[in-house]
Amino acid sequence: MKSSLLSAVLALAPGAIAWKQVSSCDDIKYTSVPGFFLQDDPNTNPSTFDYASQNFGLLNRTYPTDAKFDPRHKKTQWQRFANYVDSLNEECRRDKKTTYKVLFMGRHGEGWHNAAETYYGTPAWNCYWGELDGNGTATWSDAQLTANGIAQASKANAYYKSRFEQEKMPYFESYYSSPLKRCIQTANTTFATLNLPHSHAFRPTIKELFRESISIHTCDRRSTKTQIHAFAPHFLFEEGFSEDDLLWRGSEDEGETSAHQVARSKIVIDDVFSHDDNTWISITSHSGEIGSILTVLNHQSFGLNTGQIIPVLVKAELVEPTVEPTTTYASFTTEPTCKSPPLTSIAGQGCVCATVTTTTFTTAKATLKAEL
Ligand SMILES: *[C@@H]1O[C@H](CO)[C@@H](O)[C@H](O)[C@H]1NC(C)=O
Ligand SMILES: *[C@@H]1O[C@H](CO)[C@@H](O)[C@H](O)[C@H]1NC(C)=O
Ligand SMILES: *[C@@H]1O[C@H](CO)[C@@H](O)[C@H](O)[C@H]1NC(C)=O
C-alpha cells in the first residue's frame, strides 16, 4: 500500500483515465525521445546552458518528413519539427495506444526565498530562516519575484516573441502553472503581453501538483484559493482545487520525501496526458518539481537555474500496469530545524543548532518527572 497522503491525493485526482481508449487498468509509460534537443545530450552542461542563446536547444537536423513538407527548403527548423511531431501523432491515431506531446517546462524567475538563501547561506536557510515568513525587510512565504526574477521572466517574454515571429515556432495550445505565486507571476510576465492569436490565447490553469517539493519552508506553503484568485484573476483553477493548502505540513516540521514527490508528479503528468489532447504545452513550475517530472518522463537529470526553460518531446504509451511494488516508503518525514540561526548543517546529519532548544529541555524535564 502507498502512503495515506498519496492515497488522499489520488482520491483528489480524476478517477478513470479518459485518454482515447484508456481503461482504468492501463498505465502510462513515458519516454523522452532523444535526438531533438541539446538538453537530451549528456555532454550539455545544465549549469551554463541558456535556452535563449540556442533556439531553446532545438537541434539543427532533418526529419524523415522534410522532403514532402518542405521540398523547396523554405520552412524553419521549428516548422519542420512541428510537422514531424504531427506525423508521429498521425500514425498514433491508428494504434490509439501512443501519443506525443512537446512539453516546455519553465522554472520561475528568482524569488525572495532564492535571494534569502543566497544571503544567509544554505545551512542557515534550511535550518532556520526558511521556516520564517520573512526577515522584516523581505517576505518569502509564498515568495514573489525579485526585480531580477521579473527581468528573467521578461527575457523569456522577449525570446518567445522572437521565436514565434521570426522562427515560426508553434504557439502553445495549453498553459499550466504551479499554484505558488512566483510561478503565476513568471507565467504571466512571460506570456500575458505576447500578441497571441485568439485561438491560442493565454488561458492558464493552476494545478496543485505542479507545486514545489513540499518542504517545511514557508515558500512551499501556498496561499488560499481566494488569495490566488485576487492575485491573478485571469488564471483558472483545475477542478477540485481546495480553498486551503491541505498538503503543507511545515508547522509539524514535516516535509515530503522525494519518493512521494515522484509519485505525485506522475499523477499530475498522467492527468495532463489523459485529459488534454493538445500537443504543445507550457508548464511553469520549480527546480525540484521539474526535476521530479524529468524523472517521471525518463529524461536525464537537467537542473534549471531560475528563469530557465527546458523543452522535451515526450512519447506516452498505454501499457499493462506493472505489479505494484510491495515496498512502502515514507511520504513525509521530519525535517531538522533550529530555534535560532544554526551554527551549520552537515549533509546527512542535519542542523547543528547554536543552543539547546527549549523543546529538548522541556522533554527532559517531563521525562525526569515521569521517572519520579
Ligand atoms: C542552429 O543553427 C542556428 C543558426 O545557424 C543557430 O543560431 C543555433 O544555435 C543552432 N542550434 C543548435 C542547437 O546548435
Ligand atoms: C532580508 O533578506 C534579504 C534577502 O532576501 C536581504 O536582502 C535583506 O538584507 C535582509 N534583511 C535584513 C534586515 O537582514
Ligand atoms: C499580469 O500581466 C498583466 C499584463 O501585463 C498585468 O496587468 C498584471 O498585473 C499581471 N499580474 C501578475 C500577477 O503578475
Q: Which ranges are low-confidence, i.e. pLDDT below 50, for 5 or more consecutive residues?
A: 1-18, 357-372
Bound molecules: 2-acetamido-2-deoxy-beta-D-glucopyranose
Count of the domains: 1
Give the H and E element order.
Answer: HEHHEHHHEHEHEEHEHEEEEH
Give the strand order, joined by hyphens, for the main sheet. Answer: 1-8-2-7-3-4-5
CATH C-level label: Alpha Beta
Architecture per CATH nomenclature, i.e. the level-2 architecture = 3-Layer(aba) Sandwich
Backbone structural class: alpha/beta
Query: Distance between termini?
Result: 42 Å
Gyration radius, to the nearest Å?
22 Å
Shape: globular
**DSSP strand tally:** 11
Mean pLDDT: 89
Descriptive notes:
- This protein has 372 residues and is of the alpha/beta class.
- The chain contains eleven helices and eleven strands.
- The protein has a single domain (4-110, 145-337), classed as 3-Layer(aba) Sandwich (Rossmann fold), CATH 3.40.50.
- The strands form three sheets. The protein has a seven-stranded mixed β-sheet with strand order 1-8-2-7-3-4-5. Strands 6-9 form a two-stranded antiparallel sheet. It has a two-stranded antiparallel sheet with strand order 10-11.
- The protein is globular, with a radius of gyration of 22 Å.
- The chain starts with a helix and ends with a helix.
- It binds 2-acetamido-2-deoxy-beta-D-glucopyranose (3 copies).
- Residues 112, 115-116, 119, 135-138 line the site of one 2-acetamido-2-deoxy-beta-D-glucopyranose (NAG).
- One 2-acetamido-2-deoxy-beta-D-glucopyranose (NAG) binds next to loops.
- GO terms for molecular function: phosphatase activity.
- InterPro entries: His_Pase_superF_clade-1, His_PPase_superfam, PGM_Phosphatase.
